[in-house]
Every structure is written in structure tokens, then in C-alpha cells.
Amino acid sequence: MFVSLCAATALAAKPRVEVEIAMEPGMSGNAAAQKWVKVLNDAGVTDVHFRSSQDGDRVAVESKGSGASAAVKVTAQLTSRGALKTSGGEFTYSDGPKLKKWLDDVQASGGLPQPKTVFGLTAKQFDEVKKSLGAPVSISTKGVRPEKVLEQLRANSKLPLLVDPTIAQAMAADDPIRDELDGVSLGTALAAIVRPAGGVLVPRAGANGLELVIAELKTGGDMWPIGWPPQENDQSKLIPKLLEFTDVEIELPLSDVLKAIQERLKVPFLFDHNDIVRKKVDLAKTVKIPATKTFYRKILDRVLAQAGLKCEVRVDDAGKPLLWIAPL
Is the whole-model pTM more than 0.70? Predict the structure, then answer.
């Protein structure tokens, strides 16, 4: 037995999706076909074909053709329970929205959808975003209005950058940027700039391709980090001067001490300003170290601890080291 039915509405997007369904023995062909044609038609499928099952049948997704004639053929099986078995899992008549999402992914991928990583991106898409966000910032940022810097970074970004109006308004009411981000990668810089205003950077696959979105923080949601944990276990290899010994005697405001050390280490210092304000940490607090000889990492740990702070080595999107300073 062979039944051929075409959905009335053609997909506007390319490639075209075709679905061939092998029905197990004992299925009521016309009744089952009519139900699944409606479900698949609602999901936007162009062509649906039903046939009796044959030895060697298996579920599959196959790409064929190219350009305007490109198509993706989905081979599925209709079980004796009335479920549709596909490479994306088993669906029932009530699973229309879930089936539509899978078919949309099949169409967008031009074949079997790739596994998703964080942000709902495929591994290939994530690598593309990471590469784009690895471009260095080439403007001075400290003391500059965040919205002004954001517009300059938007103009130089390879990916479209969208900003939630709520975050844009919060940035306009916020203080100038507190950290110097010249030379830091674009992704790390964007995440740091919008954080004081309650914003996060989120890459996503939009209707027209990859894009960057600056939005409000959602509980449990993914967000682009301000620096990544380094793969290199020995952090002294990333910042060799951390283990360099020097004579030291300190009784100065913490901010002055950090500025002096940063100039010697020659790496960016980025601060968790949100938690610093929340926990009422005073960066002008006088810190003390009696005359001694020690190395810079030890100096940092001692003066930061006196103000209730700590630091950790991170790397930006291009793999360059930075120090992240946050409350204990």
C-alpha cells in the first residue's frame, strides 16, 4: 500500500523538508495518515509520504540537492501505538510543538541537528562566537561613559549587537566605566561594561544568523563570563611576574597599591564592582605590610584580604591573562 499526501502550505525557507513515513503492519493507513498530515502540516512540512514498512527500514535524516533545489528527507516510522519514531526521538499526536522545533532545527542545519552547547548553540556556532569575541578592544575605557564605549564596540563587532532598552537606560544612569579595558577581548569587555547596570552578554542564533544580546540577568540563565578559568594549571606561566620577589613595605590606600602592582604585572585588573558595592568594600582602605621580601602574588593576597577581597587569574576570550578581583 502507498499513500501520498502533500501539505497545502509550502515552507518559505530553504532547504525544503520532506517526510517519508513507514507504517508498521496493522496500522489503519488512512486514519493514521490524516492525523499525522495535520500535525506535520501545522509544523510547516512541505511533503509527507506514507508507505508500508519494509525489511531494513530505519529512521534517518538525509540531505539532497543544492541551492534552490536543496531538500532534507526525514525517514520516520509510524509504530503500532500511533507514535512517530524519528532520529530526533519519538513523538505522539500531542507533541506538535516539540516536533515542529525539531523539524525547524533539521531545516536550519540542512540535515541532522548538531548537539547544542551552552546558549543553545552548536559547537561550530560557539567557536564562531568565541573567535569573534576574541578581537581586542582598541580604545581606552576608564572614565568614559558606558553607552559611548558600547556604541564604539558595536560598530567594530563582526556580529550584530542588540541592547535591551532597560539595560540601556540603566547604563545611561550609571557612573563612567571604572576599569581600563583597552587590549581586553571584546566579549570580556562587553560583559564587564554591562554588569554594573545589571546586564549580561548572551550570544544566540537569531533568524538571520548569530547575534549578541545584552539583556537583564535571569535566574539560572546562561551569560558570557568576565574571563574564563585558565586551562594552564600553573598560573605563574600565564603571569610570570606573580612569583617575582621584591622588597616591600606598605602603608597606603589599597587602590594605590593595586595600581602600582598592576603597572608591574602588566595585565588588566577587573573588579566585581557589583559585589564590592553590595558588601561595602572600601578600596580606599589603608593596607599594611611590614618591611619584608616576598613575591607579588603573596603581596596581592595579603593586601586584598585586609579589605575583604581576593583575586584569581582568568583569561579573556583570546586566552590573554587578567586578574579578577572580588569580595571574599
Answer: no
